[in-house]
What we know:
Elements: H1 2-20, E1 24-26, H2 29-45, H3 47-53, H4 55-60, H5 65-80, E2 84-86, H6 89-117
Antiparallel strand pairs: 1-2
Helix pairs in contact: 1-2, 1-6, 2-5, 5-6
Amino acid sequence: MKLIIRILATAFIVVALARFLPGTHIDNYLTGIWVAIVLGLINIFIKPLLIILTLPVTIFTFGLFLLVINALLVLLSSELVSGFYVKGFWWALLFSLLLSFFQSVLFSAFEKKNENLHP
């Protein structure tokens, strides 16, 4: 149940960001759900491989290269999901930064709510 709530919350954030940022476009909320699922799968399977392969660059840039990896993964998801479009690298970078920020805020609010319900 927690996974479904996280996917739906991420889909809501994705749709809101795509409507707000002029360099991104999304057709509807169902497409947002697919983007959330694809981003989740990409983060599980592809992102760890990219992090390992680019570890020297990531260390050299003090971790800032992870932002580039996140932007590339957003661009990959825009290629995989029809109805979701990101105009270029810089829009993908801004999208990934805002998505990460809003996810952390929203998910931490969920965790605090659950802690209050179950001490």
